Amino acid sequence: MSNIVIKTAQSEIKQDKNGRNYKTVTFGEVKFIDTPFGKQLIPATQSRTTKINCYDNNYLGKQDPGYADPIFNNSNPTNGGWFMGGIETREVSGYDIPTADGGVRTVSTYTTVVFGDTDSPAFESTVKSAFSSKGHNVVENGITDSSVASHLAALQASIGA
User: Is the CB of residue 138 less than 8 Å from the CB of residue 91?
Assistant: First the structure.
């Protein structure tokens, strides 16, 4: 069962410096974890959210997922806003971001929404492609989602390492 991201909010239409229309869209993650009792939902209080810019006409000449989709509506869930995917964090080549005091700091992780089947063996390729399209190259053998680390720790504990 693949994880799901839900569109929960969006901004008004804005224009970038090239005159392309976009919206800043907020997505929340509905994540399933493996338990001894089968797949279970992570409680909403432990779920992650993130914002991304979704373009009306991206550099591939297509509309980004989330741009025109309706916002999730609790009273009518079939009204849209559901996507297969996850909110993923990876270690990337370092990049600079401005700080509140006017300085600059270098960071080496990035988080974004990745649309696709999270249970597919090809999902990591989808992640790398999504990060690349956002201008960030995933560092091989770098940090992956924190759930991978927790699964590894549980595996080590079970074999007594």
Answer: yes
Q: To which H or E segment does residue 152 belong?
A: helix 146-159
d(CA 3, CA 1): 7
- pTM, two decimals, is 0.74
Question: Hunting for tokens 């399209």 — which residue is that?
Answer: 133
The answer for residues whose C-beta is within 8 angstroms of residue 115's C-beta and 6 or more apart is: 5, 65, 83, 84, 85, 126, 130
How many beta carbons lie within 10 A of that of residue 11, not counting itself?
13
Lookup: tokens for 68: 């025109």
Residues paired with 109 in a beta bridge: 91
Cα-only R_g, the chain = 18
pLDDT tens, N- to C-terminus, the chain (161 residues): 678 888 888 999 999 999 999 999 999 888 877 788 888 877 766 778 899 999 998 888 888 888 888 887 766 655 567 889 999 999 999 999 999 999 999 999 999 999 999 889 999 999 999 998 888 899 876 555 555 566 666 666 777 65
Which residues, other chains included, contact 19 with Cβ-Cβ below 8 Å and sequence gap of 6+? none
46 secondary structure, DSSP code:
G
Return the domain boundaries, the chain.
Answer: 4-153
